[in-house]
Amino acid sequence: MSFSNHINAVAICRTPYKQKFGIPRQPGLVNAPGYIEFEPAFNHIDAVRGIEQYSHLWLLFCFHENLSQGWKTTVRPPRLGGNEKLGVFATRSTFRPNGIGQSVVKLHGVVQRHGKVCLKISGMDLLDGTPIIDIKPYIPFSDAIADAKGGIAQDAPILIPVKYTAQAEEKIAQYQLQEHYQGLAELINGVLSQDPRPAYKKAKDDPKLYQVALYDLDIFWHMTDNAIEVLDLKPTT
Ligand code: SAM
Question: Is the CB of 43 under 6 A from ligand 1?
Answer without folding.
Answer: no
